[in-house]
Design brief:
Elements (H helix, E strand, L loop, with lengths): L2 E2 L2 H21 L6 E7 L3 H17 L2 E7 L4 H13 L5 E4 L9 H7 L11 H8 L8 H12 L8 E5 L6 H9 L8 E5 L7 H4 L4 E4 L16 E5 L3 E4 L7 E4 L4 H4 L3 E4 L6 H17 L7
Parallel strand pairs: 1-11, 2-3, 2-4, 5-6, 5-7, 7-8, 8-11
Antiparallel strand pairs: 9-10
Length: 294
């Protein structure tokens, strides 16, 4: 039987570890880690994500600040970011995506102070990651690395196929999984929706990571026996049998793929909780001034 990669349980363990470190910080009369989040617009999913992040900060003893607007121009947003950048009491800053269409996302990301960019999207942090230097690693890839470590999954010499090339998940993971060290030292192939016959690649994968947002894309016929499957995809699929009116589905046909796996993440409860926890790990390191010195 496959082992379920329980991100929810792993995240709870990591949060307990962080909470212990916060207690030690308090006992030393040092500054408590402080995460700020900027939320623009009325996207329901974004509101849920940010609410979860703020709640998780409270769980581990962090300070948190929510800066929220129904609408805002780009110049006004950049001025707010400038204010947070200069605020020495705030260690980490996230700008929740997606942003309204009139705001240039890259311009916003470039405006973040790199040491406060706990999402790890700033070009400075991205470049340091590619050069294998200490930096903030994007939260979802960092969460996946933590999950691999917690379950002691072998990566060296393994063939890792990543489906999805986004700069949030797929692209940084392709760098991280191929870097020297653990987790890493894998042979990596990066696919996307334009790749012809993805199954040619996925059937050879020792480790398969999907992050493309197409429910049920990966079928049992597309994986080999013993594969490790990490499903980052999460899509709301209409479901009249549910009170909320939808079911959350991953990129993987879980019920049929699971019997062939050695390890597999559920959706929900796999990568999602690890992503939020990774923001806390980055914020803690930022507060301890360890981002570029480890």
């Amino acid at each position: 039987m496959p082992t379920i990669l329980d991100g929810k349980t792993a995240a709870q363990v990591i949060k307990a570890e962080i909470a212990q470190k916060v207690e030690a910080i308090k006992a030393s009369n040092k500054k408590i880690p402080h995460l700020a989040a900027i939320l623009i617009g009325n996207d329901a999913a974004s509101h849920t994500y940010v609410k979860n992040k703020i709640h998780t900060c409270k769980e581990v003893g962090f300070q948190s600040t929510l800066i929220q607007y129904d609408d805002l121009g780009e110049r006004a947003l950049l001025e707010i970011i400038d204010t947070v950048n200069k605020n020495e009491t705030i260690d980490g800053l996230i700008v929740q995506l997606p942003l309204p269409v009139h705001i240039d996302v890259q311009n916003v990301v470039n405006h973040l102070k790199p040491e406060k960019d706990v999402d790890g999207f700033h070009p400075f942090n991205y470049g340091r990651m590619a050069c294998q230097l200490p930096t903030h690693i994007p939260a979802t890839p960092l969460g996946i690395l933590e999950l691999l470590k917690r379950y002691k999954i072998k990566t060296a010499g393994q063939y890792c196929v990543i489906v999805g090339k986004s700069r949030i998940v797929g692209a940084p993971l392709s760098i991280l999984m191929s870097r020297a060290g653990y987790p890493g030292n894998a042979t990596v192939t990066l696919c996307d929706k334009l790749t012809r016959d993805i199954g040619i690649f996925t059937r050879k994968a020792d480790i398969l990571i999907t992050a493309i947002g197409k429910p049920g894309l990966i079928t049992a016929a597309m994986v080999k026996e013993g594969v490790v499957v990490i499903d980052v995809g999460i899509t709301r699929v209409p479901d009249t049998t549910k009170k909320v009116g939808f079911t959350l589905k991953g990129d993987v046909d879980f019920d049929n793929v699971m019997p062939k796996c050695s390890y597999i993440t559920p959706v929900p409860g796999g990568v999602g909780p690890m992503t939020v926890t990774s923001l806390l790990l980055n914020t803690l390191r930022a507060a301890q001034k360890k981002v570029y010195s480890e």
